[in-house]
C-alpha cells in the first residue's frame, strides 16, 4: 500500500489538476491549434518538413540469406506477416474498437489531444493506478513509424521512444502536421496497418489471421475488442502466449469504452463479454517457408537461424524488434550453410527413410573450432501444409527436429554418451589403459526392481557378451561399446562428474525430467553413460566437435557475416569459443574414438569396432566416432568427426519414442553420416589427429583391475531414486 499523502501534496495535486484543466479548456478555445506554442520555436511543423517515412510510409527492405559461398540464395525475409489493407476491408467494429481503446477523441482533436495529456498527467501525479501516456492514435502512429523506419539509424530509432519532453513535443508537432494534411480515415488506416498486436502479428490483417484465421473484414465485435485491447501491451495480453485472463479483462475494458463512445449498446457489450475466447490461431508465416522450390530442406536451417537472430541484442531490444529488423532491415546474411554438405545430408537422410515414413533421420554437421553449422537435414518437408489425418510431423512440419526447441526435446543417443564418461575419467587422472574385467552383467549400487535388476539393484548388461565381456581398457571398451565397463567407470569417477562433462560440452537437457535429474539427482543417474537423456543431432555433433578441436568448445552459430543495409558489418556471428578441456584429455579421447570406426589408435590398442565400415568410406582418412543404440533399438545413432567436421545422425520416431527403429538401420545410419563427412572434407587437406601423451595413455600391460563387489549393507544407496530408475532401465544397450 502506498504511503499516505500529506495535506500539502494533496493541495498541490488539486491546484495542478485545476491548472491543467483550465489550460486544456483555454487551448481548445484558441484558433490554429496553439498548443504547439509549447515547442521551442512556437511553430507548427509543415507536412513537407516531416520525415519521408511519415509522409510516405517506408517500404520495408528485404533481408537476403545466402549460403556460405555468398552466392546461393536460401531465401529472403520480408514482412510476410503484415499485409496492408484498405480501411474499407476492415470491419467497422474493429475501427470503432481501436478508437475506443486507444483514443476516444480521435475524431475531435487535431492530432494531439491536450485534454488527454492533461488528464494523463494528473492521473500520473495522483498515482494509485496504471501510468497513463495521453498519446493519441496519430501520435502512436508517428512513434511506430519512427522507431521501425529501416532507413533511420539505430540511434534514431531508439530516440523515437526516449522518455523526454523534447521527444514528446516533436511527436505532438509531427502528429498535428499529419492531421492537417491527411484525413482521419487515412491516419486510422495507416495506424491499423502498422500497430503490433503480439505473437508476431503486425497490422490488423496479420493479427486477424494470426488469432482468428480470418480476414479483418470478417471480425466480430468480440474479436475486434480483443484485438484492440492487445495494442496497449501486446506481449502481456496475447492469449496465444497463455495470457487469456488478461486478454479477456482487456476485452471487457474495450467493450465498455465502445459503449461510452456510443459505438455499441450496453446490451451488445454484455453479449460480447459472454462469448468465450474462441481462438483459431494460424502458424506465423516467415521466410523459411518460402525457400527455393526443391530445397524446402533448407527451411530447418533457416528456422534455426531465425531463432538465433531473435536472441541477438544487436538487432533490437525485444524479440518483436529483432523479428521486425529481419523482415524489414535490408540485411545481407552470409550463413554457414554449405550447399554441398547440405545436399549430401538430405540425400542420405531420405535414402534411409522416405519423406512419408513416420521414422526420421535428422542429421547435423558442425565445423570444429568455429561452431559454424554446415548442414541440417531430415526426411521431412519444411512446410505448413496439411498432413494426412493423424500424422503430426510427416511429411510436413516446421518443428525443430534437428536442433531441438519448443516441444522437441530430442532423442536418446545411446552409447554415444560414453564419451562423456571417458572424458570425465581422463580429466580425473585415469588413463586410457585403465583396465576392468567387464562381466556380462554388473550389479550396481542403485536400488531397482523388475527386469534388469540383480538382487534388488540395477544390473546393466552387455548387448553382445561373447564379443564384449572380459578385460577391457578405454580403447577397446569404447571400440566395442562395453556397457558394464563404462557403467563401472562412471561409478569410479562419479556420475555427477559425467553429467557435468556433458553439459560442459553443450548437451542441453530440454526435457523437464532430464533437467531435474541433472540438477537434483546427478550423483544417482546411473544409466546416464548409456545415453538415456534426450539430445539432438546438433548438440551431439557440437559436443564431439569440441573433442575434435582438442577441447575448445564453440557455441553453434548459423552465420558467417551480417551486413546492414548501409553496408556496415554487424558485430554478430563471430565464433564464440572457450577451452573447456585440457588438449591432452581431448586427444586421449579421440585416440580411443579411432577404435569404433575401424582405425588404429596411436598406441595400437584398438581390437574391434561397431562402425568399421567408416574407415573404408573415408579411404583411410583420419576419422573417429561412436555408435549408440537405445533400449530395444528405439533409436540408432552415429557421430563421426575429423579435425575439420563433426556429423551426427539419430534414427528415431519423433512422435513416438516407443516405436523401435530396429538394429538393422544402424549400418544405414553409420553409412549416411560417414558419407556426409566425406563430402565435407572432399578437397580439403588431410589432417591427422595429434597423439595423446604417454602419461594419459598409461601402461596397457599393467595387471587387471578387479575391484571387490561392493558390500550392499556397508554401502547403501546415497538416495533411493525410486521411480527415477524405472526410466534408467529403459536403456542398457551400447
UniProtKB/TrEMBL annotation:
Residues 685-734 are annotated as: Disordered. It comes from the Bacteria. Residues 696-715 have a biased composition (Basic and acidic residues). GO terms for molecular function: penicillin binding; peptidoglycan glycosyltransferase activity; serine-type D-Ala-D-Ala carboxypeptidase activity. Pfam families: Transgly, Transpeptidase. Residues 73-258 form the Glycosyl transferase family domain. InterPro entries: Beta-lactam/transpept-like, Glyco_trans_51, Glycosyltr_51/Transpeptidase, Lysozyme-like_dom_sf, PBP_transglycosylase, PCN-bd_Tpept. Gene3D superfamilies: Biosynthetic peptidoglycan transglycosylase-like, DD-peptidase/beta-lactamase superfamily. GO terms for biological process: cell wall organization; peptidoglycan biosynthetic process; proteolysis; regulation of cell shape. The keyword Zinc does not apply. Signal peptide: none annotated. The keyword Iron-sulfur does not apply. Residues 364-670 form the Penicillin-binding protein transpeptidase domain. It catalyses: [GlcNAc-(1->4)-Mur2Ac(oyl-L-Ala-gamma-D-Glu-L-Lys-D-Ala-D-Ala)](n)-di-trans,octa-cis-undecaprenyl diphosphate + beta-D-GlcNAc-(1->4)-Mur2Ac(oyl-L-Ala-gamma-D-Glu-L-Lys-D-Ala-D-Ala)-di-trans,octa-cis-undecaprenyl diphosphate = [GlcNAc-(1->4)-Mur2Ac(oyl-L-Ala-gamma-D-Glu-L-Lys-D-Ala-D-Ala)](n+1)-di-trans,octa-cis-undecaprenyl diphosphate + di-trans,octa-cis-undecaprenyl diphosphate + H(+); Preferential cleavage: (Ac)2-L-Lys-D-Ala-|-D-Ala. Also transpeptidation of peptidyl-alanyl moieties that are N-acyl substituents of D-alanine. GO terms for cellular component: outer membrane-bounded periplasmic space. Keywords: Carboxypeptidase, Cell shape, Cell wall biogenesis/degradation, Glycosyltransferase, Hydrolase, Multifunctional enzyme, Peptidoglycan synthesis, Protease, Transferase. PANTHER family: BINDING PROTEIN TRANSPEPTIDASE, PUTATIVE-RELATED, PEPTIDOGLYCAN GLYCOSYLTRANSFERASE. In the N-terminal section; belongs to the glycosyltransferase 51 family. In the C-terminal section; belongs to the transpeptidase family. This is Membrane peptidoglycan carboxypeptidase. It comes from Micromonospora parathelypteridis.
Amino acid at each position: 500500500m502506498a504511503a499516505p499523502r500529506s495535506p500539502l501534496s494533496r493541495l498541490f495535486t488539486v491546484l495542478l489538476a485545476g491548472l491543467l484543466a483550465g489550460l486544456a479548456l483555454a487551448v481548445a478555445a484558441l484558433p490554429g491549434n496553439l498548443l504547439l506554442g509549447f515547442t521551442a520555436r512556437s511553430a507548427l511543423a509543415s507536412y513537407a518538413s516531416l520525415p519521408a517515412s511519415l509522409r510516405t510510409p517506408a517500404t520495408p527492405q528485404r533481408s537476403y540469406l545466402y549460403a556460405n559461398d555468398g552466392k546461393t540464395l536460401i531465401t529472403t525475409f520480408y514482412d510476410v506477416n503484415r499485409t496492408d489493407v484498405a480501411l474499407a476491408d476492415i470491419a467497422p467494429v474493429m475501427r470503432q474498437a481501436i478508437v475506443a481503446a486507444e483514443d476516444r477523441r480521435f475524431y475531435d482533436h487535431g492530432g494531439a489531444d491536450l485534454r488527454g495529456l492533461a488528464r494523463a498527467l494528473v492521473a500520473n501525479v495522483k498515482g494509485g493506478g496504471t501510468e497513463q501516456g495521453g498519446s493519441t492514435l496519430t501520435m502512436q502512429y508517428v512513434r511506430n513509424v519512427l522507431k521501425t523506419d529501416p532507413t533511420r539509424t539505430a540511434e534514431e530509432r531508439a530516440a523515437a521512444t526516449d522518455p523526454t519532453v523534447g521527444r514528446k513535443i516533436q511527436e505532438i508537432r509531427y502528429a498535428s502536421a499529419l492531421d492537417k494534411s491527411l484525413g482521419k480515415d487515412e491516419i486510422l488506416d495507416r495506424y491499423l496497418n502498422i500497430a503490433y498486436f503480439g505473437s508476431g502479428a503486425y497490422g490488423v490483417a496479420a493479427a486477424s489471421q494470426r488469432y482468428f484465421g480470418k480476414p479483418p473484414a470478417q471480425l466480430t465485435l468480440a474479436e475486434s475488442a480483443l484485438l484492440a485491447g492487445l495494442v496497449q501491451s501486446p506481449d502481456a495480453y496475447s492469449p496465444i502466449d497463455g495470457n487469456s485472463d488478461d486478454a479477456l479483462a482487456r476485452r471487457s475494458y474495450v467493450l465498455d469504452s465502445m459503449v461510452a463512445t456510443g459505438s455499441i449498446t450496453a446490451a451488445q457489450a454484455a453479449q460480447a463479454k459472454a462469448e468465450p475466447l474462441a481462438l483459431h490461431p494460424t502458424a506465423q508465416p516467415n521466410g523459411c517457408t518460402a525457400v527455393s522450390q526443391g530445397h524446402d530442406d533448407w527451411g530447418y536451417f533457416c528456422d534455426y537461424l531465425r531463432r538465433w537472430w531473435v536472441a541477438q541484442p544487436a538487432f533490437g531490444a525485444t524479440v518483436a524488434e529483432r523479428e521486425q529488423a529481419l523482415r524489414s532491415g535490408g540485411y545481407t546474411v552470409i550463413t554457414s550453410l554449405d550447399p554441398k554438405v547440405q545436399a549430401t545430408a538430405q540425400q542420405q537422410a531420405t535414402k534411409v527413410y522416405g519423406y512419408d515414413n513416420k521414422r526420421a533421420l535428422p542429421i547435423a554437421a558442425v565445423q570444429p573450432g568455429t561452431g559454424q553449422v554446415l548442414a541440417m537435414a531430415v526426411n521431412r518437408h519444411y512446410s505448413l501444409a496439411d498432413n494426412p489425418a493423424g500424422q503430426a510431423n510427416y511429411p510436413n512440419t516446421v518443428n525443430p527436429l534437428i536442433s531441438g526447441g519448443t516441444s522437441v526435446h530430442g532423442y536418446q543417443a545411446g552409447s554415444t554418451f560414453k564419451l562423456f564418461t571417458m572424458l570425465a575419467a581422463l580429466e580425473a587422472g585415469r588413463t586410457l589403459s585403465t583396465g576392468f574385467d567387464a562381466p556380462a552383467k554388473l550389479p550396481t549400487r542403485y536400488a531397482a526392481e523388475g527386469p534388469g535388476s540383480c538382487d534388488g539393484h540395477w544390473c546393466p548388461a552387455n548387448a553382445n557378451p561373447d564379443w564384449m565381456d572380459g578385460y577391457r581398457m578405454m580403447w577397446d571398451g569404447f571400440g566395442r561399446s562395453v556397457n558394464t565397463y563404462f557403467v563401472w567407470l562412471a561409478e569410479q569417477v562419479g556420475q555427477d562428474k559425467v553429467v557435468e562433462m556433458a553439459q560442459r560440452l553443450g548437451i542441453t537437457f530440454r526435457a523437464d525430467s532430464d533437467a531435474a535429474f541433472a540438477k537434483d539427482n546427478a550423483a544417482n543417474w546411473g544409466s546416464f553413460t548409456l545415453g538415456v537423456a534426450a539430445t539432438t543431432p546438433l548438440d551431439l555433433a557440437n559436443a564431439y566437435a569440441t573433442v575434435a578441436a582438442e577441447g575448445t568448445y564453440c557455441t553453434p552459430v548459423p552465420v558467417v557475416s551480417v551486413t546492414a543495409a548501409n553496408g556496415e558489418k554487424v558485430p554478430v556471428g563471430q565464433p564464440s569459443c572457450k577451452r573447456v578441456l585440457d588438449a591432452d584429455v581431448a586427444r586421449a579421447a579421440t585416440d580411443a574414438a579411432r577404435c569404433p570406426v575401424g582405425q588404429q589408435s596411436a598406441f595400437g590398442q584398438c581390437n574391434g569396432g561397431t562402425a568399421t565400415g567408416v574407415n573404408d568410406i573415408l579411404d583411410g582418412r583420419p576419422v573417429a566416432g561412436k555408435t549408440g543404440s537405445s533400449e530395444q533399438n528405439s533409436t540408432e545413432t552415429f557421430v563421426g568427426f575429423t579435425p575439420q567436421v563433426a556429423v551426427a545422425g539419430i534414427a528415431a520416431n519423433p512422435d513416438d519414442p516407443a516405436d523401435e527403429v530396429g538394429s538393422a538401420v544402424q549400418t544405414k545410419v553409420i553409412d549416411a553420416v560417414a558419407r556426409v563427412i566425406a563430402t565435407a572434407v572432399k578437397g580439403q587437406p588431410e589432417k591427422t589427429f595429434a597423439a595423446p601423451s604417454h602419461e594419459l595413455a598409461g601402461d596397457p600391460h599393467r595387471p587387471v583391475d578387479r575391484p571387490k563387489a561392493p558390500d550392499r549393507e556397508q554401502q547403501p544407496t546415497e538416495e533411493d531414486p525410486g521411480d527415477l530408475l524405472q526410466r534408467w532401465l529403459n536403456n542398457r544397450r551400447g
